[in-house]
Every structure is written in C-alpha cells, then in structure tokens.
Amino acid sequence: MFWNKETETLKGDKLEKLQIKRLKWTIKQAENIPFYKKLLNESKINAIDIQNVKDIQKLPFTKKTDLQGGYPFGFLAVQKKEIVRIHTTSGTTGKPTVVGYTKQDIENWSELIARNMTMVGLTADDTFQNAVNYGLFTGGLGFHYGAEKIGMTVIPSGTGNTKRQIEMIDDFGVTAIHCTPSYAMHLAEVAETMNTKLKTLKTGMFGAEPWSDNMRKNLESKLDLKAYDSYGMSEMYGPGAAFECQERTGLHFWHDSYLIEIIDPDTGEVLEPGQKGELVVTPLVKEAMPLLRYRTGDITMILEDECPCGRGPKIARLTGRSDDMLVIRGINVFPSQIEHVLRAIPEVGEQFMVYVDRENHLDEMTIEVEIKREFFKGELSDLEKIQKKIIHSLKEILNVRTKVSLVEPESLPRFEGKAKRVIDKRGDKL
Ligand code: DLL
C-alpha cells in the first residue's frame, strides 16, 4: 500500500531532477543562516555549482558541535514568527540542540509518517496507541500528526503507567503501537503478569534506539505482532526519515526528502553502497532548519538491491555510532554532558565512570563519582545530600534518571591515553 505512490517509487532521471532542484533550493535556504553563508563563501560554492547529485560532495559537512555554537536560534533560516513548533534533542554539553519547524515543515513531516504507516499496511480503520513521550522528544507529536493525517484513531497515551496502557490496548481494541523496543518488551512482560494476550495488536513500530533481530523475534512472539524498525533524528524532523517496508530487509530512506551518503568517519571519504560507515544526510525540503551534509554519527550502509515493494534505496538497520553518544531508554546522552554537569559541582573530584546495563529489558545507567577528600570525610547524611544533588543536576540536563554512587578520591582508574569513561554492557543483551 502506498500513501504517495508516484513520489515513493520515483526513479532515474525524474528522481534526480527533483533531487537537484531541491538541493539547490536547500543551499539557497541555508544561505539565510550566517554559519552557512560564511562556510559556503569560504568554500566558494553556491547553488549554481550543483549540476548533478554527486556534486553534493563539493559541500562542506555539518557536525552536531556546529549546531551547539548556534544555540538557541542561530540555525533558523526563517523569521522567528514563521516558526510554529520547537523540539529539542540532547546536545553534546549543557545546552540542547534546538530544532524549529515552519507550518510547511510540520506538513512535510506528517506526510512522511503517513507514508511509513501506510507502507506497513495501516489505514483509517486502525486504532493506534502512541506510547512515547509527547514533550520535546520528536517521537510523540511526530507520529501523532502522521497517524491523524491517515485518519487513524489515535490514543496519545505517552509513556508510563504500564498497566493502564495495557488496559487501554485491550479495552480500545488497539491494533498498532509505537514505542521504543525496550518499552515494548516491558509492556509484554507486564501483560504476561496481568494474564492478557493483547489479542488485538497486529503492528508494532519501534525505534529511537538500537535493537537487534533477536529482540525483534522476542517481541513478535511475546506480543504476537509484526514489528517494524523506524529510524530518524530530531535534526531530520524526527522519526520518519527511514522506515522498514513489509519486506523488512532494510529501511527505505525517503529519497525525495533526503539525500544520503556514507562516509569513512575518520577520513570523510565517501564510501560505496555495501560499505559500512557513518550516515550523512542532507534534508531536501526543510524550511526552518536546512542542513548540509549533516554527520549523524550513526553507522550503517546503503543497500542497493531493488526492493520488491518498488520503493527507493534502503539502509541497513543501525547498530552503532561513530561517536560516544549513548541511547538510554530512547534518550540520547553524551558523556560530555555528564562531564559538564559534574564539573560544575564543587564537591565532585577528578574522575567519574559511567556503566550502562540492561535490567529487565530497561536501560540503567550508573555513574561512579569521585568526591573530593574534604567532603568524603563528612557525615553519611552529608554524603547523601551530595548524592541527591548530583542525581538532580544530571536529571535536569540529561532528562534521564541515573543511579549515582560516590567513591573515594583516586579510587577510579586513570588513563594515560584517551579516557575510557563509559562501560556499556548492553551489547549482548539487545
Ligand atoms: O530518536 C527520533 C525517533 C523517534 C526515531 C521515535 C524513531 C522513533 P533523537 O532523539 O534526535 O530522535 O535521536 C536520534 O537516535 O541518531 C540514532 O543514534 C538513534 N536512533 C533513532 N532511531 C533508531 C533506530 C529520535 N531505529 C538518534 N535504530 C539517532 C537505532 C536509532 N538507533
């Protein structure tokens, strides 16, 4: 099933013409942003230099740290009054990355979500429970608007209160659900204890964090549904950039809305289809916040085989990152953010270590923090106060609950080279 068959199956010259036209428009739009105006001037490139899609390689890359420099509105290409919505995602330090949307952006984004959901067979006859956060996280409102566009019955359940979520699935006859794969696993387990089989569910759309094929098998057998992988990032609107079709042999990237490349993360060299590297995305229709060759940090490859569904290119499922970003219960966390928070607390000593593990299918992050000697000697209740302060400050910036344990000064490992402060034990538990 198609939402927009003509665009979704566009190929050859017709597609390239559209992509070039939109790429030229995007470059012009980016020139409204002082950062890009300077960068394009320095590299002596403008829209006229783009003759074919490969000419994109003449453009400079954009990194997440560049966006940081523009906080809060330095990357908006339109007047503030044209912005109808703001979402944010984690930045690499204390301040988040801000993403603005015009009315047209919201329309474009909803269309992409509508395409994705139609692609996996959902229609106005479906009842859809959106069990992700409805705040600044793009997963909530993003899916909501797309599902309403199709005309589905939408239940904006958000996260939490798992028993109530399960009752709603049963009572409202929910047929499709969207959440993070780890929350889906939690739902399945709670449903088991409630002795319900969630019989009406037939489609699960899971994303925002890596999940393995084994986890898919597990979810499908526990929830008795067909599970699809959904990829996106706030800088690309949010979810919806790439999604699995019913073949489930990779995720279709919407070729009319994004140009994708894979590069070697160390050298920046552009790699061939079939070679694994860092995904670089140039959105082609973003009005409020156009980006040129944005380095996502996500590792994947372009899959060239024609898909029987007739749509365009796909990428392999995402398993890793080229940087040290962690995804904890669907929320992005950079170790540099943790460092930023800890360094601002006077009682905190020199070193810290971050441990990430999965307990009952949910991510848990524990941070061991060295405390300065003069504070370590104090009363237990003083130490508890410090611990609470650290937990609170981390929650404020990371938006994630963490466990904190205070340790003596000089008790954590020291590193001669690059510090390895994160130990992620989830690898084999995905
Ligand atoms: O996570 C948008 C989203 C919401 C996608 C709901 C899918 C479903 P951010 O919070 O900006 O946006 O995080 C983007 O999350 O660069 C990846 O590292 C990771 N990520 C997102 N989807 C997947 C996935 C949303 N399907 C970052 N598999 C990305 C693996 C994923 N990692």
TrEMBL record:
<comment type="subunit">
    <text>Monomer.</text>
</comment>
<dbReference type="GO" id="GO:0010124">
    <property type="term" value="P:phenylacetate catabolic process"/>
</dbReference>
<dbReference type="GO" id="GO:0047475">
    <property type="term" value="F:phenylacetate-CoA ligase activity"/>
</dbReference>
<protein>
    <submittedName>
        <fullName>Phenylacetate--CoA ligase</fullName>
    </submittedName>
</protein>
<dbReference type="InterPro" id="IPR051414">
    <property type="entry name" value="Adenylate-forming_Reductase"/>
</dbReference>
<keyword id="KW-0547">Nucleotide-binding</keyword>
<feature type="domain" description="AMP-dependent synthetase/ligase">
    <location>
        <begin position="45"/>
        <end position="281"/>
    </location>
</feature>
<dbReference type="GO" id="GO:0000166">
    <property type="term" value="F:nucleotide binding"/>
</dbReference>
<dbReference type="InterPro" id="IPR000873">
    <property type="entry name" value="AMP-dep_synth/lig_dom"/>
</dbReference>
<dbReference type="Pfam" id="PF14535">
    <property type="entry name" value="AMP-binding_C_2"/>
</dbReference>
<dbReference type="Pfam" id="PF00501">
    <property type="entry name" value="AMP-binding"/>
</dbReference>
<feature type="domain" description="AMP-dependent ligase C-terminal">
    <location>
        <begin position="330"/>
        <end position="426"/>
    </location>
</feature>
<comment type="pathway">
    <text>Aromatic compound metabolism.</text>
</comment>
<keyword id="KW-0597">Phosphoprotein</keyword>
<dbReference type="InterPro" id="IPR011880">
    <property type="entry name" value="PA_CoA_ligase"/>
</dbReference>
<dbReference type="InterPro" id="IPR042099">
    <property type="entry name" value="ANL_N_sf"/>
</dbReference>
<keyword id="KW-0436">Ligase</keyword>
<dbReference type="InterPro" id="IPR028154">
    <property type="entry name" value="AMP-dep_Lig_C"/>
</dbReference>
<keyword id="KW-0596">Phosphopantetheine</keyword>
<dbReference type="InterPro" id="IPR045851">
    <property type="entry name" value="AMP-bd_C_sf"/>
</dbReference>
